[in-house]
Amino acid sequence: MSNLGIVFRKYRLGDEEGIASLLHSSFESFREYGINKEVWLEYGKIDSGFRPENALVAECEGKVVGHVQIICRRVKIGDNCYVDMGGIANVSTMPEMRRRGIGTTLLMNAIEQCINEGIPLSGLFTSYGSAAHRMYKRVGYEDTFFCKALVGTVDEMKRVKDNCGEAGGVIIRHYEDGDEDKMLKTYFEWGKPYTGLVERSIEYWRRKLVERSAIHTFFYGDFDPEEVFIAVENGEVTGYAYTTLCKKQKVPFRPPEAGIIRELVFKPGRLKSLISLVDAIMDFFISEGVKLCEVASPLEDVYLTVFKPFRQMPHGMFMTHIPLIHKLFEELKSELENRISLTPLSGGKIVMEFETPYGSIRLSVRGGEVNIPVDEEPTVKIFFDSNSFTRMIFGVETISDLMTGNMVRIHTTQYIGRVVSMVQALFPRRIWFMSPIDHW
Ligand SMILES: CC(C)(COP(=O)(O)OP(=O)(O)OC[C@H]1O[C@@H](n2cnc3c(N)ncnc32)[C@H](O)[C@@H]1OP(=O)(O)O)[C@@H](O)C(=O)NCCC(=O)NCCS
C-alpha cells in the first residue's frame, strides 16, 4: 500500500536499525532504557509473543518513518477461556512526518493483519486523552478498562505493615532454583477469577522472570533472587511476590527511591500468605530506603483492604478492538454455556442479536446450549454504543450498568427483565487484571 510516497509494509531484515532509532526518537521510556537494534532483536529471544516479522513499518525514501508492533498474547475472558490477542505496541511516527495519517494507516494495517491471521481480539495501553488515544478511537478501539496502581508513601507503607499484624505458620523466603513451576501453578490458581490475565508457559516464565527480571514486555532488569519473595505453608508454595528496587534497576518513569511490587499472588484462601508477604516486603522496602511504593494488583477487596492507606493512581487506559467478532464468539461458546449452566435460566430459549461497532452477531441460547451463528430471526436486538460492548465482553460492566449509563438500546417483544437476566448471566461482572509484566 502506498500513500504520498510512503510505502506501508511488513518488517524486512535490516529494518531493525530504523525501528530502534524511531523508538528512540518517539519514546522517552525507550531513551531511558537504551534502545538499539540489538536490544530490539533480543526481545524476540526473550518473549515468544514478540516476533520481528510482526513489525509493520512505514517507509519513506528508504527510511523507516513509522512503526507498529503486534505482540501475540493469549488473554483470559472469564474463568477458563483464553483468546488470541494482537497487542498493539510502539506505535510511532518520526516527529517531522506526523499529522499525515501515517499512524492511523499503520493501525488499520495492524487490524487487517489480525484479521488475516485469525486473531479475534486486539488490545493496547495508552494515556487517556492523548493524541494516540484519539488515533486509536478513530480506528475503532474502545476504552475497556482504566488501569490503576496502588501507591503509598513511606508513612503509608508503615501503616500497611502495622495493619498486617502477626500471621503465624507461614515461612517467607527468597526465590530458589526451580521454584518457577510452583509459582506458575500458583499464578493460574490465583488468576481464576480475573479476566484479562495473560496465559504464560514455563518457558515464558523462565525467560522473563528467572533469567532476567521483566518489568514490562520491553523493559527488563537483572534477576535478583533477593527481590523475589516466596510464601510457604506446610512445605507448599502458597504465594509469591516480584519486587523491584528502582535504585538498583532502572525503571522508566520511576524515581530511584521508588519500590515496586510487580506481582503479588497467593493461592485461594491463603490470606495469611498474602499478609506475610506484604509484611516482609514492607520491611525490605523500608530497610532499603524506599520512599514510594507502587503495587500492581487487582483492585478487589482483599488487596484494597491490605493496602487501605495507599491511593489508587491512574495507570493508563486498556483499549480493545474486535477484528473478528464471529470467531471471538465461537471461542467463547463453552465459557458462555458454562455460565448459563450456573443460573436457573438454562431451560429458557432466546435468540438475540448484538449490534456492535464490530458488526452484528446473532446467538441463540436454548436448553443451556449457545449457538452461533443462527438463521432464526432474533427476538431481541441490542444496540451497543461505543465503549460499551468490549466492557461487557470482559465483564468490566454488565448489561445493567450499560442500561443505567444509557449505553445500549434494547428492542424486544419479550419481557425485558427476562432478557436482561439472560444477558447478565452470559456476561457477568468480573475483575479485570493483567500483570504489568505482560503489558506491552
Ligand atoms: C501518536 C503518533 C503515533 C501519531 O502518529 P501520526 O502519524 O501523527 O498520526 P496521524 O497522522 O494518523 O494522526 C494524528 C493527527 O493528525 C491528523 N491528520 C492526519 N492526516 C492529516 C492530514 N493529511 N492533514 C492534517 N491533519 C492530519 C489526524 O486527524 C490526527 O489529529 P488529532 O490529533 O486531532 O486526532 C505520533 O504522534 C507519535 O509517534 N507519538 C509519540 C509516540 C507515542 O506516543 N505513541 C503512542 C503510544 S500509546
Q: How would you describe the oligomerization state of the chains in this entry?
A: single chain
What share of the residues lie within helices?
A: 25-40%
Task: Count the DSSP helices.
Answer: 14
Q: Briefly note the CATH topology name of the largest domain.
A: Aminopeptidase
Mean residue pLDDT: 96
Shape: globular
> Strand percentage, roughly?
25-35%
Write the CATH architecture name of the largest domain. Answer: 3-Layer(aba) Sandwich
Residue stretches low in confidence (pLDDT < 50, at least 5 long) are: none
CATH homologous superfamily classification of the largest domain: Gcn5-related N-acetyltransferase (GNAT)
Write down the Rg.
23 Å
Structurally, the number of domains stands at 3
Helices and strands: which structural class?
Answer: alpha+beta
The beta-strand count equals 22
CA(first)-CA(last) distance: 27 Å
How would you portray this structure in words?
The chain has 440 residues and is of the alpha+beta class. It has 3 domains: 2-140, Aminopeptidase (3-Layer(aba) Sandwich); 148-315, 3-Layer(aba) Sandwich (Aminopeptidase); 324-426, 2-Layer Sandwich (Nonspecific Lipid-transfer Protein, Chain A). It has 14 helices and 22 strands. A 13-stranded mixed sheet has the order 1-2-3-4-5-6-16-7-15-14-13-12-8, sandwiched between helices. Strands 19-18-17-20-21 form a 5-stranded mixed sheet. Strands 9-22 form a two-stranded parallel sheet. The longest helix has 17 residues, at 271-287. The radius of gyration is 23 Å and the shape is globular. The structure holds coenzyme A. Coenzyme A binds at residues 26-27, 91-93, 98-104, 126, 131-132, 134-135.
